[in-house]
Design brief:
With 268 residues, this protein is an alpha/beta fold. It is built from 10 helices and 17 strands. Helix 6 crosses helix 7.
């Protein structure tokens, strides 16, 4: 198994905790490889001093999404070229349970993810929610169709996104709730999720490269799950593999600019 992720100096604030988490796993048959896309060699040298296997990728003129995808595909190629069975994608701000690998491997799935929260920032409000979505249930669709005006008044931005899809719920994602995850005693079927704690079999990497679409929002994780489902591969999430996402401590945030390019801004 190869464990790794794209990394950069922007996550220096959580790198120590991240490395400790990887090195504290109770599963012992794995290698670590990180791919650094920082603008200088400083962060790369720091990792080398800590005896971490790291590859340096100089991508000064590329966007954030391009950097992440290029780095992730370096790891994909390493898995395929060097005979690993699995790629365990663990991003730089994720802390794992010590037995995460054993729990995920036990389920014998081609794609299975742990669960962590992401931070929504809207109009000065900050909300943590699971980075995990599913299909809509019929009773949920029926409720919305019966109560359009009420939902339009109560949740205008949410209603707008549904209306823009002409109420075609097959094209829409329904976020899993914290309650659903806590109460589940079985694996959850995933329509979209993250790559922060995702165990991926080599068979999947032979069929799917990490990518994104310039004219759409989102990073390569969303397109990875989309591509898998289109190939008839069902991803799952393990409700007992609960990870800590150190997103609240970030001194910066990501936002799309007018050219649909993600840029980093300091938090106020």
């Amino acid at each position: 198994m190869l464990i790794g992720a794209p990394v950069s100096h922007y996550h220096l604030y959580c790198t120590g905790a991240y490395l400790k988490s990887l090195q504290s796993l109770t599963y012992n048959n794995y290698d670590i490889c990180l791919v650094d896309n920082s603008p200088t060699d400083k962060f790369y040298n720091l990792l080398k001093e800590k005896r971490i296997n790291v590859i340096r990728k100089d991508m000064k003129d590329k966007t954030i999404r391009e950097k992440i995808i290029d780095c992730r595909n370096v790891l994909r190629e390493k898995v395929l070229d060097e005979g690993y069975d699995y790629f365990f994608s663990v991003e730089q701000d994720i802390l794992l349970p010590k037995n995460a690998v054993e729990l995920l491997l036990k389920e014998n799935k081609k794609i299975i993810t742990g669960i962590y929260m992401f931070l929504e920032e809207n109009n000065g409000k900050r909300l943590l929610a699971p980075l995990l979505s599913r299909d809509w249930k019929q009773e949920e669709i029926d409720y919305i169709l019966r109560n359009k005006e009420e939902i339009k008044k109560r949740l205008p931005s949410w209603y707008k996104s549904i209306a823009e899809e002409n109420f075609n719920f097959k094209n829409l994602l329904h976020p899993y709730s914290i309650k659903e995850i806590k109460e589940s005693d079985k694996l959850l079927k995933v329509k979209s999720g993250g790559l922060g704690c995702a165990l991926i079999h080599k068979d999947i990497l032979e069929k799917i490269k990490f990518r994104y679409e310039k004219d759409k929002e989102g990073f390569d994780d969303a397109f990875f799950y989309k591509d898998a489902l289109e190939l008839g591969i069902q991803p799952y999430a393990h409700p007992k593999v609960l990870c800590h996402h150190m997103v609240e401590q970030r001194p910066w945030t990501l936002k799309l600019d007018k050219d649909n390019v993600y840029r980093i801004y300091k938090r106020k």
